[in-house]
Design a protein that fits this description.
The chain is built from five helices and three strands, in the order ααβααββα.
Length: 120
């Protein structure tokens, strides 16, 4: 497992957990990889409308450092890089599942629109 610059100290378990999912895109990257499995960078970017290339690169690097995402580089031209969840990332998604259920109920309750993404 990679060593992260984020090593605490923490007030509680929620503090430690939020440290690795802070930012709008990290939880969505986790969801995208859970839903679709291994993805290339461009596929992740298409699946997350609104994310900038810079922000996606930054979050993926941090998530790799935290042991949530595996980055596989293939020695081919043009370069091929794939991202997938590690066991640690899968376990974090399982922990976030009840939050997702709560969010779905909130969407329903307030009548909010849901963004749909073309399956490209």
């Amino acid at each position: 497992m990679a060593t992260s610059a984020r090593q605490g100290p923490y007030f509680c378990g929620i503090d430690a957990a939020m440290d690795v999912v802070t930012g709008k895109w990290k939880s969505l990257i986790l969801w995208e990889l859970q839903e679709h499995g291994t993805r290339r960078f461009a596929e992740l970017r298409r699946g997350l409308p609104g994310v900038s290339e810079k922000m996606l690169v930054q979050h993926l690097r941090e998530m790799e450092e935290d042991g949530l995402v595996n980055r596989q580089v293939y020695p081919v031209v043009p370069p091929k890089v794939e991202y997938s969840l590690t066991e640690h990332g899968v376990s974090l998604n399982a922990a976030l599942e009840s939050l997702a259920v709560w969010g779905q109920e909130r969407i329903r309750r307030i009548g909010a629109d849901k963004i749909t993404v073309d399956a490209a």
